[in-house]
Amino acid sequence: MGLNPEADQRSREAAREGSEFVELLEVLWEHGRDAVPTGPVSPSQLRVLYTLDREEGINLRMLAEALGSASPSVSRLCDRLQATGFVERAPSPVSRRELELRLTSHGKAYLVDLRTRREEILMATIDAMPAKARRSLLEGLRAFRGAAAGQQDSDGARPLRSTG
């Protein structure tokens, strides 16, 4: 907590609203009228796909670190994703003992489709908001992404990918 109790309270309220927002997104995407099922992948596998999309060509150890998981568990996730045709393992040009992990064209297309469908659901809700609220939302989301990327940098973790 900081030195300003009023600012701390606003941050706490924003965190609570943010948490409720994330839960609402999950419900909209998974159970809403225009639900976006993640199809053949679990949430854990989806995290692998997102990470490989940002960090193409990383090895298993680096992927496990990025996910905060044990290498054997991540290896099994990658085995299943490779079996679905979403991930490929290839020899590293740097070390013969390492394999690089990459999304296949099928895996990339899957993520593009998933993101497109999710954005369409968000657009329907955002379009119903007043213009001023949409501008504030955009400003707040950009600031949040910047703060999250800065926080990850200071923690030594990989920064979030910026998409816009």
TrEMBL record:
Q: Where does the source fall among the domains of life?
A: Bacteria
Boundaries of every HTH marR-type domain copy: 18-146
Q: Which GO terms describe its biological process?
A: response to stress
Pfam families noted in UniProt: MarR_2 (PF12802)
Which Gene3D superfamilies does UniProt cross-reference here? Answer: Winged helix-like DNA-binding domain superfamily/Winged helix DNA-binding domain
Q: Name one GO molecular function term.
A: DNA-binding transcription factor activity
Q: Where are the transmembrane segments?
A: none
> What is this protein identified as?
Regulatory protein MarR
Which organism is this protein's natural source? Answer: Streptomyces pratensis (strain ATCC 33331 / IAF-45CD)
Lineage from the top down?
Bacteria, Bacillati, Actinomycetota, Actinomycetes, Kitasatosporales
